[in-house]
Design a protein that fits this description.
The complex is a heterodimer of chains A (324) and B (690).
Chain A lengths: L1 H27 L4 H8 L6 H11 L6 H14 L13 H36 L8 H10 L2 H15 L19 H38 L2 H8 L4 H19 L1 H19 L4 H10 L3 H29 L7
Helix pairs in contact in A: 1-13, 5-8, 5-13, 6-8, 7-8, 7-11, 8-10, 8-11, 9-10, 10-13, 11-12, 11-13, 12-13
Chain B lengths: L4 H9 L17 H23 L30 H37 L1 H16 L2 H11 L5 H12 L1 H15 L2 H8 L4 H9 L4 H24 L10 H10 L8 H29 L11 H7 L1 H5 L6 H7 L8 E13 L4 E13 L3 E5 L6 H8 L7 E11 L5 E3 L5 H7 L4 E4 L3 H4 L6 H12 L5 H15 L15 H13 L5 E5 L7 H18 L2 E6 L2 H7 L2 E6 L2 E7 H6 L4 H8 L49 E2 L10 E2 L20 H12 L1
Parallel strand pairs in B: 3-8, 3-9, 6-7, 7-8
Antiparallel strand pairs in B: 1-2, 1-4, 4-5, 9-10, 10-12, 11-12
Helix pairs in contact in B: 1-7, 2-3, 2-12, 3-4, 3-6, 3-7, 3-10, 3-11, 4-7, 5-6, 6-10, 7-10, 8-9, 10-11, 10-12, 11-12, 19-20, 19-21, 20-21, 21-22
The chains are: A mainly alpha (324), B alpha/beta (690).
Amino acid sequence: MRVLLRRGFFYLVTAWAAISLNFLLPRIMPGDPADALIEKFHGKLTPAAVKALRVLFGQSHASLWQQYVDYWHNVFTGNFGISYAYYPTSVSDVLGQSIGWTLVLISVCTVLGFLIGTGLGMIVGWKRGSWLDSLIPITTLLSSIPYFWFAICVVLLFAIVLHWFPLSGGYSVTETIGLNWGFISSATYYAVLPALTIVVASIGGWLIGMRNMMVTTLSEDYVKLAEAKGLPKRRIMFTYAARNAMLPSFSSFAMSLGFVVGGSIVTEVVFNYPGIGTVLFKAAQAQDYPLMQGIFLVITVTVLVANMLADLAYVFLDPRTREG
Amino acid sequence: MAISAATAQEAESTDTTGSSRFGWLRAFRRPMTLTGVVIVGVFCVLAIIGPWIAPYDPSGVSKATLQPPSPEHWLGTTQTGQDILSQMLYGTQVSMLVGVLAAVVATLLSVVVGLAAGYLGGVSDEILSLLANVFLVIPALPLTVILAAYLPKTGSFGIILVISITGWAWGARVLRAQTLSLRKRDFVEAARATGERTTSIIFRDIFPNQVAVIAASFLGTVTGAILTQASLAFLGLTNVTEWSWGTILYWAQVSSALLTNSWWWFVPAGAAIALLGTGLSLVNFGIDEFINPRLRQAGIGTKKAQRAQAKAARAKAPRRRRSEARSSQGRTRTSDVILQINDLEVDYVGEGSITKAVNGVSLTLRRGEVLGIAGESGSGKSTLAHAITRLHKPPAQISAGELLYQRDDGTTIDILAMDEDELRRFRWEELAIVFQSAMHALNPILRIGTQIDDAIKAHRPAMSAGERAARVLELLDLVGIQTDRVDAYPHELSGGMRQRAMIAVGLALDPEIIVMDEPTTALDVVIQRQVVEKIIELKDRLGFSVIFITHDLSLLIEMSDTIAVMYAGRVVELADAKEFYRNPRHPYSGGLLGSFPTLSGPKRELEGIPGAPPDLRRLPSGCAFNPRCPLAFDRCTAVVPPLFALAGEAEWQQAQAACLLYEGDGSAPDRVPSDEGAPREDHRLVEEAR
């Protein structure tokens, strides 16, 4: 329990740090993004929109502390201002429309990539020294490929040459978004290629990490004892080796997840997928600072939540963490 | 970077020793590592000379638009007729420069933060670690995108800065853990005690030991930085008129190269990133394997590892039958032999060298007997224990000998001839082993009860869960663990309890023999006593035989019936425990006995044995003990003495000693003298006798 409390506290601190960073960045960076935007949308902005911009990016007349308080007020009320790339939609609305796509795509792909990669890593580690070792250079190559480039290759092969899957987008325009069969099947069909890209590109990292931990765990005395006890191979592999070898994957989950999220964002751009990655790309192109800030906050908070889940799983798997 | 995630976790718990500071250079000999080095080297050269050898101006437009690869344009041209090969060559320079410089800055940051946090400890550690962890959890790419967007159309300098700010945390965390473990090491403690300055300790004693870890973290960061730069460039967040691999991909994407099917436009840049990344990872594998030598061993799941185990023994010609084996062993008191070890040899097979860890050992174990095996570390006693149970792993290999087990019904089976399945059924059912450290031998994340139950379940598939649970409780009770601790995890038990639990695991199937490999070494004297008494009590009650291995001779004398003393892989003395205590024959036994206090019995002065145990790879000629032996004479360097049978009382085992002093009738000096003057005299005596 105390471990969980400690971790919970850590995530609160991290969230605070990330949000404060978001507040500070536009204020310490050269130039004034607010001025630039007001200039760009000359005359088109309502006074309220200008005020919101000032709260986000710094007002000349208010004290820094007052700005900070206002900023937090906005964060909690979900008021991130107006998006300029999608003018005049509010940032919260843009986020609301795109977050679901990314959330489903990345969580499904992360779980799949983790299961396949860790599973393969377990087998390769278990059979260390056999022909399976030759998989390592291949997976290394796979995991060194930039996600977005792999995405381009996948599109070329499966969408342009073979015409098996659609080129881009998230669903067929003839469907209406909602919980109906037509939409869900269409969305799944459109998601195959992006998902394939992310899963294949992320397997390598999990595989190699798990394999190395597996090999290390296999030389532990408790595995030797399990072997001596005459346990079935399967039982040794899963319960005595793999379960222990998996633990570090959970504690380094944060970094691996950050890597997958980063890769997925760029992958979405290639597929013009209606998720948050594509939105971030458009925001960056249009220098839509409010939208970028909103996206950064949403991604950070989501990643933090995912990490907390990984921590929970860790506590569930390792009894040693359960006491003070 | 994700590649090294779990590996680096492992690196946190291992450490490099002071003596092998630059031994990591050896890692470069492996073919995989070498391939990596060559790949990275080629890219480095291209990065330097690229712009000079580029055939065209990378931005120069021409009429040859969207040409596939041809002799004029090896990699084809873009929509505006730019030469892609030239773009690639210029791009290599920018991409590598950004990657390397960003990694240099990030690594510097992580070294400073990691060393400071690990070495200073206290509040500074708390704060720096928190900072590193926060940066680790915040997803790097979105942060980088935002940072890059605030510096619109920045050149490489801004990108380098942005990447290093987000890329230092992982290295810092690994280095901190390393520093923490190094800080507690003797040579650092010593430097601190002699009043060396903090900065000088960090840079002279700690830093050189982390070169390998720092190098691994640096290479990982280079890969990460190149990928990040490519992503940012691809998203159009860098200066798109400056050629880098990412910029080429950006223009390909913007110009819809896909739709025009001009694959040559985007394939080279991505392939270059992937290839360089692979090269760097391969180099990193080499470093990982150096940091963590266990990664080099063969896995137990492989047939190869299983086969290698007893290859030589099984390839041998027809085995001697039981009667012959017995006669070769000489006089035995009773006929109820349960385990017969004949001329067992165990080799450690290295690269081009073979080291004999167990060299022609023959021993006999009878029903209900406690056979104690004593020796210093490196004498081969633990290797012997593992070989008896066939739990040894490559590079250890049984090269000769027999392990004959006699069943209740009188039939004899050769343990070395068993196939994997037979061995699995035999082990634990008939022969169990208790390891030295229960802390390591019990799986930390499984309940004690489960670990006992596992053994029963594997061998008695017919038993119901209820019957097994009852048996588990019975076993716990037997070894003196309260039955309500059945659901406890190993870390919840005390050291003595854990060792008892280990014994319960060993007893699970009522084996005939239990091999105990230093079962009490990790315990304090009082607990040790309790555990030993428990073992003796159980042995008397259940009637199993014990092979007890330890370096603690006084403990052994108390509990054993027979004692075998091992030195440099050979048994040098074999005798009844009481007789051995009264009258140790081998000069080594005499020295060993003189260096331990006894728990009971008369007090005597403690002496050590001069010198150190021999290096098995470079054994002295003749008797391995001769350089340390106070009684050595000329012939000792020429002849390897066999075991000579000796006269004297014997209940279980007629005394034998492998010493030339007993050559001949075996009755020569009946006492190894322990006082100073005697050796010379004895020496002469023996010489005259010859």
